Records
---
Amino acid sequence: MAKSKIKDEIDELKGKISHHNYLYHVLDKPEITDYEYDQLFQRLQDIEKEYPELLAEDSPTRRVGGEPLDNFVKTQHREPMLSLQNTYSPDEILEFHERVQNYLKGQGEAYSYFCEPKFDGLAVELVYEKGLLKAAITRGDGVTGEDILSNIKTIPSIPLSIQSREIKIPEIFEVRGEVVIFKKDFLKLNETIEQQGKVQFANPRNAAAGSLRQLDPKIAATRPLKFLAYSPGVIKGAKIKSQEEFFEMIRHFKIPNAFDLTLSLKIKNPIYKTAKSIDEAVTYYSDLEKMRASLPFEIDGAVIKVNEFSVQDILGKVARSPRWATAGKFKPQQAETQIEKIEVQVGRTGVFTPVAIMTPVKVGGVTITNATLHNQDEIDRKDVRVGDFVIIHRAGDVIPEVVEVVLSKRSKSSKPYRISYDCPSCGEIGEKIEGEVAIRCVNPMCPSVLIESLKHFVSRKAMNIDKLGERIIERLVEENLVKSFSDIYKIEKEDLLKLERFGEKSVDNLVHSIEQSKNVHLSKFIYSLGIRFVGEQTAKAVAKKFKNIEGFLNCDLESLVDIDDVGPKVAESIVKSLDDKSFKNEIKKLESVLNILDYPEAHAGSGSKPNEIFEALTFVITGTLPVQRSEAQDYIEARGGKVSSTVSKKTFRVVAGENAGSKLDKATELGIEVLTWEELLKLK
Ligand code: IVH
C-alpha cells in the first residue's frame, strides 16, 4: 500500500480513537463497544509497528507504555501559578467584593463574577505548543514544578493534541486544572490496593498525588485519574476575554472540564455560574455546599473569580494571590465525639482490624458510629485510647477516620490501647507475620474467617449467589450446616425450611440462586476462592494464562510470575494455597459439583480485554427465548455484560423472544436495537 494511504488510515484511526475517548471519558456516552474500540486501537498499533517512522507524537498508543523515569524534570512555568486567598463565610465573601470595589473605584469597569467548584486534587498545567501536548507541569512552588507528562498522558480524557475545524490552533495554549480521583473510583482503587496487600490511600487527593508521583507510567495508567480544567495560563495566538470564553474554548478543544461532566451526569443545578452580583455569587456558594455530598468528586469550596480578564489585569495580585479571586471554603467535614470502645474484627484473611465504636455524631449530614483504626502502628501513632474524645472526619467524603485525639479532655486514668492476640471470634492465639504490622488468626476453622470467606465466595463478582445474604450465611454457619464453600452445594431445601423465619418461597429462591451459580467462568471461580492478593484482575490474568481448571491446579511459581499482572508475592500466595492439601481438596469437591467454564479463546489477542466482549454493556431479556432465561443471563454475564429488567437509554441491546411485550415497545421507542437469541450468539 502507498505510504500516503497508510498515513491516511493512521490519521483516520487517530481521529476515531480520540473521538470515542471523548464520548466515553468526558461525555459518558459511548457509541461503540469496548471490543470495537480495542479493535481500532489494535489496528493502529499494528500499523505503527510495521511503519515505526509514522508513529506520531500524539498517537493514542503512546498513552500506555512509556518506560519508567529516573526522575521528573524540574520545569519553570511561563507564568507563575498563583494560589487563592480563602474566605470562610458569606460575610467574608462580601468583604472580598468590597475590596474589589474599592480597588476599582472610579474606573467604572463593568464586571461579573464567574463561580466554580474548588476541586480537591492536585494542580497541573497542560502545555500545548502548536496544538501538541508538550508538557504537564505540577504546581510545585508556583514558579517551578515538575514535568509529569508521561503520567498525564495516561489519562484517557486528556487530548494529546488539540484540533479544530473552525478556529486557528493557538501557538501556545496553557490550561491549568486539577487532577482528581472520583469518590467511587477511589473506593474501588483502595479495594484493589488492599487485595494486593498494600497500604490504602487515606483520601482521593492523596491517591491522586501518589499516582502522579509514580515514576513508572504503567502504574499511573492503572489509576483512575481525571483532569478538570479551571483557568488559562499563557495563551498565544488566540483571544480570550473572560473566564466564560476560556470555558467555551476548552470545551471546543474537548479538554475535560466539570461543565461537560455535569451535563453528562445530568446534575440539575449548574455547577458553574456567571453571577451578575455578589449576592448571586453568595447564593452559588451556599447552593454548591448543599450539592457537595452528591457530587461524584470532592470539592472543598467555591472559587469566585472576576470574569473579565481586562478587569482581572487592573486588579493584579497581592503577594502570591490574585486580588480578583477568592476561594469560599466550606466548613470542614469534621466533628468531635468520644470513643466508647475499641472492637477487633476478623477479616477474610484472618487479619485483626481494630475499630473505634463512638458516640454517634453527624459529619456532613451522615451519622458516624464506627471508624477503622487500621492496626497497632496506627493506634500508637495517634495514641488513640478507649474513652478519648477525638476529632473525626470523613476521608474522601466516605470513610470515617480519626484525625486526632483531644488531649486536653483525656482522662487521667486512661491507658494506651494494645490489640490482644486472642482471636475475638474463636479464641485461638493470633500470629504476627514477619514484616507485617497485622496480627492474623491462622485457625482455618475460625468462624469469622469462614463467614467472611463465604461472603466473598457468594459475592456478585465471585460466584454471584445473590440470594445468599450475609445474615443467612451467619445462620448457616451457626447451625453448622456450612463449614466450607462446597457445603453450600449440599444444602437441602429441608435444611433451610427448618431454620426459623425461612418461608417456602425464599427457600425456593435461594435454592434456585445456588443452582444458577453452578455454571461459572474460570476467572470468577479463581477469584471466589479468596486467595490472598488475588483480586478480580489477577484472577482474570491467571485464567487467561491457564485456560482451564486443570491448568490452574497444576500451575507453578515460574509460570505464574510469567504473567504480566502477577508479581512474586502474588505468585507465592497462589502456590502456597494450592500446596495446602485441605484447600486443594476443597477445590476438587467444588469441581465435582460445578461446571467451571474454560477461558474462552474466541477473541484472544484482539485487544486489551479480549474475554469481556460485553464488558459493562447492559442487556434486557424479554419474551420467551429458545433457552432458559437463566442460560441467556449466564451467557451475557460470562462475557462481562449485565442483565437489567428495565429498558432505558443505557440499555445496549434488547434480546427478545416470543410474546415480548412492553419492553419491546420501549426499545423501539428509544431506538434500541433488538436481537433474537440466535443474533445474540453471533454478536462479537
Ligand atoms: S484558580 C489564581 N480555580 O486551588 C487562580 N483553583 O489555592 C488560582 N483549585 O492551586 C487557581 N479548584 O489547585 C482555581 N476552580 C478552581 C480551582 C482551583 C481547585 C486549587 C488549585 C490551586 C488552589 C489555589
Note: The radius of gyration is 28 Å.
---
Amino acid sequence: MPLVKIHDKSFETYLSEETISNRIDELAAGINKDYAGNRPLFISILNGSFMFAADLFKRLTIEAELCFIKLVSYKGMKSTGKVVTSIGLEEDIFGKDIIIVEDIVDTGKTLHDFLPQLLHQQPKSLKIASLLHKSEATIYPLTIDYVGFDIPNKFVVGYGLDYDGLGRNLKEIYQLV
Ligand code: 5GP
C-alpha cells in the first residue's frame, strides 16, 4: 500500500476517493429526503470541512444555503474549559433549519462548547453532519445526525484534514502508520 509522507510522519490509505464519494452520495440522499420542502442553512466549520462541504453541497437537490465559519478557542483556558467562539457567522439563524458541517468529531468538545451559542439564537432545528466520527474518543455526548464513517481513534489526514498545515489536498483519507 503506497505510503504518503507528511512532515516527519508516514500515512497509509484508509478511505479511498470512491469510498468517500459513495458515502457522501448516501448522506446527501438522506438530507434531500429529510429536508424536502425546506431550505436549510449549512454552516461549514473551517478549515477542515471545506472539501466535505463542497462535495455534499453539490449533491443537494433541495434549496439550501451555505456559509462558512471558523471556531476559535482561547488558549490558556484549556485546562479550565476553553471558550469557543465563532468568526464569520453573519447570518441570522433565528427560525432556520441549521445543519452544521464538520470534518471530524473527536472528543466532541469543540461542538459541545459551540452548540449552546447557536441554540441561544433560536434556530428552528439544529443537526450535525460530520464526515468522520471517532466514537471511541468521544467524551462529550453529542448526537451526530449524519455520520460518514465511524473511525478508530487514530490520527487521519487528507480530504481537507491536515497534519500541521499539510495534507489537506489529498483526495483520500490517510491514517497514521
Ligand atoms: P474535538 O473537539 O471533537 O475533540 O476535535 C475536533 C477537531 O479536532 C476537529 O475539527 C479537527 O480539527 C481536530 N482533529 C481531531 N482528530 C483529528 C485527526 O485525526 N486528524 C486531524 N487532522 N484533525 C483532527
Note: The first strand starts at residue 3 and ends at 6.
